[in-house]
Design a protein that fits this description.
Pfam families: Cys_Met_Meta_PP. The chain is α/β, with parallel strands linked by helices. It has 14 helices and twelve strands. Strands 1-7-6-5-4-2-3 form a seven-stranded mixed beta sheet, with helices on both faces. It has a five-stranded mixed beta sheet with strand order 8-9-12-11-10, covered by helices on one side. Strand 2, helix 5 and strand 3 form a beta-alpha-beta unit. It binds pyridoxal-5'-phosphate.
Length: 419
């Protein structure tokens, strides 16, 4: 155990050294950081321009008990470290840690809590996070309250208790794309008790469009599975933070629990990050066009997209985000599950599948897919109805996507056509 602890400190030392080097670099935007931070060719023998994948599970020690930089790959390895440095720079965080999945990151964080502790979570939280809180954490004696943080953020203080250890914000939420005021909530929570951790799940916005740590949050979580990797071929998660204490505690839990990603997957996510900025800009351009098209469509009841002026929190969107991704939620007229299914089945370019954030367009029915685990009554209260459809707008030609949507909407509403 001692050896693992000392390895954490070594990693800190190395990070400090890397940070000093980093500060000397001429730096401009996130595009530059995505390509250069943590990728310095001088780090590798032979000065490879692309970071090599280090598959070794263990590392030679010149003296017993005195590892050089790494000792065992669960505790750290060169490929993971270069990804973690790059991720931290994009989120403007001091530290980043990666995990085997987004939920792996969440589960690891849960080990900071103990029986009797209390979590306050946004109500429209990702279904898997809600399930972990409701089913698994409840079993461990950790209580959770689910609160609408979108319309009256200052009411958050009414839900805090002396046992509250974590406030979980997801903004924009999945699937209703509700926003929570990160700055206001962080200020109020920290005023109540500076020791309460405020976490923001930044998966839907990405580090490109929203930086919660700059707004006062303590922790940022990403399902890297989504936009950050962007190619739908890796499941991975991360936690980012500025506090050295949190980094040390979570770094310890990362290797003590062991929900770590493989070096090959780290390589893939690191590669995906290189195009994050261009992908996100295109996702947004196409999504905004499609959202505006759907907004005036006769078969659409309502379109939810934070970048539309009709979004109830458009002002907050402009304040805390610099744009949004390709996620659109729409209510079909009629709230009829058969119509929704017909629409999805007829689409040719959109694939019906869970997940999001890849270069390919995906579509799903939250009520019977991603959010089926949310208790029905809670789903109804939130507005996750049979007519709600979530789209992840990919990087295909936007006119092709619009044509696909139009033809399929016509089909869905043609009652005479066989189902
Ligand atoms: C907003 C959000 N957070 C967290 C997760 C969990 O991430 P993962 O699937 O990588 O475990 C998801 C997954 O869909 C998500 O949408």
């Amino acid at each position: 155990m001692e050896r693992y602890v000392s390895s954490t400190f070594q990693r800190d030392d190395k990070n400090e050294e890397m940070k000093r080097n980093h500060e000397q670099m001429p730096r401009t935007g996130i595009e530059t950081d995505a390509i250069h931070v943590g990728q310095e060719p001088e780090r590798w023998p032979g000065h490879a321009v692309i970071p090599p994948i280090s598959m070794a599970t263990t590392f030679k020690q010149l003296e017993p008990g005195k590892p050089l930089l790494y000792e065992y790959s669960r505790c750290g390895n060169p490929t993971r470290q270069c990804l973690e440095e790059c991720l931290a720079s994009l989120e403007k965080a001091k530290y980043a840690l990666t995990f085997s999945s987004g939920l792996g990151a969440t589960t690891t964080l849960m080990f900071m809590l103990k029986s009797g502790d209390h979590i306050v979570s946004i109500d429209d939280v990702y279904g898997g996070t809600g399930r972990l809180f409701r089913r698994c954490m409840a079993q461990m004696g950790v209580e959770s309250s689910f609160v609408d943080m979108s319309m009256d953020p200052s009411s958050i203080v009414n839900h805090l208790k002396p046992t509250t250890r974590l406030v979980w914000i997801e903004t924009p939420t999945n699937p209703l794309l509700k926003l929570a005021d990160i700055e206001l909530i962080s200020t109020l929570v920290h005023k109540y008790d500076p020791k309460i951790m405020v976490l923001v799940d930044n998966t839907f916005a990405t580090s490109y469009y929203q930086r919660p740590l700059e707004l006062g949050a303590d922790l940022v979580l990403h399902s890297l599975t989504k936009y950050m990797n962007g190619h739908s071929d890796v499941v991975m998660g991360s936690l980012m933070m500025n506090s050295e204490e949190l980094y040390k505690q979570l770094g310890f839990l990362q290797y003590a629990i062991g929900a770590v990603p493989s070096p090959f997957d780290c390589y893939l996510v690191n590669r995906g990050l290189k195009t994050l900025a261009v992908r996100m800009r295109q996702h947004m351009t196409s999504a905004l066009l499609i959202a505006k098209y759907l907004e005036q469509h006769k078969y659409i009841e309502r379109v939810i997209y934070p970048g539309l002026e009709c979004h109830p929190q458009y002002e907050l969107y402009k304040k805390q985000m610099s744009g949004f991704s390709g996620m659109i939620s729409v209510y079909l007229k009629g709230d009829d599950v058969e119509k929704s299914k017909r629409f999805l089945k007829h689409l040719k370019l959109f694939t019906t599948a869970e997940s999001l954030g890849g270069y390919e367009s995906l579509i799903e029915l939250p009520a019977i897919m991603t959010h089926a685990s949310v208790p029905e009554e809670h789903r109804r209260q939130l507005g996750i109805t049979d007519g709600l459809i979530r789209m992840s707008i990919g990087l295909e030609d936007v006119q092709d996507l619009l044509d696909d949507i139009e033809v399929s909407l016509q089909y869905a509403f043609l009652n005479t056509i066989e189902k």
